[in-house]
């Protein structure tokens, strides 16, 4: 799906408005394992994923806790760091070679000033992000490990081939051994 069609899933914009976004895009490639944002750093760029898979996570007691994965045609950011221009509390890294395009925070604010419709688009995308986070929080606290695994497989089955299973297990808050058992026993 192209980016214009992707944006229009959230809120209708016309080509003129879309061009306000794409004319300011800059390109950046990251290698597998390369970090985009580290804790304490303020994210200055909103990335648009063209290829690759990225992961946000934090470390606690020598354990990785995965927050989210991004992949095409998603946006890629530490949302609260970018939107509030405050230091990040966690990492954003590339799980594979990634081709991204980006807008700086200042460029995006200028675009918002020029187009209320684009500002509305990003607000609606943010609202859906918040709803997704709340839904994930509910799933983590109310579903069994098998139900969480099945829900993930329904939403993002392609990630089973692209992301190391230990990261998916962390994302689902499932012990890696139990994840392996589920992966080998449940038909997807």
From TrEMBL:
Gene3D superfamilies: Jelly Rolls
Pfam families in the record: cNMP_binding (PF00027)
Coiled-coil intervals: none
Location of the Cyclic nucleotide-binding domain: 9-52
Protein name: Cyclic nucleotide-binding domain-containing protein
């Amino acid at each position: 799906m192209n980016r214009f069609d992707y944006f229009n899933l959230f809120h209708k914009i016309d080509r003129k408005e879309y061009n306000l976004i794409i004319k300011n895009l800059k390109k950046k490639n990251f290698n597998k394992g390369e970090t985009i944002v580290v804790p304490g750093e303020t994210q200055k760029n909103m990335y648009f994923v063209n290829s690759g898979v990225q992961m946000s996570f934090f470390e606690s007691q020598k354990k990785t806790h995965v927050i989210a994965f991004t992949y095409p045609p998603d946006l890629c950011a530490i949302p609260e760091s970018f939107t509030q221009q405050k230091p990040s509390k966690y990492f954003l890294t590339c799980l594979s070679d990634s081709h991204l395009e980006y807008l700086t925070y200042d460029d995006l604010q200028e675009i918002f000033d020029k187009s209320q419709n684009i500002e509305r688009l990003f607000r609606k995308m943010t609202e859906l992000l918040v709803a997704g986070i709340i839904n994930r929080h509910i799933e983590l606290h109310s579903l069994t490990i098998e139900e969480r695994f099945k829900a993930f497989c329904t939403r993002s089955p392609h990630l089973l081939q692209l992301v190391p299973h230990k990261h998916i297990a962390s994302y689902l808050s499932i012990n890696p051994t139990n994840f392996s058992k589920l992966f080998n026993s449940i038909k997807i």
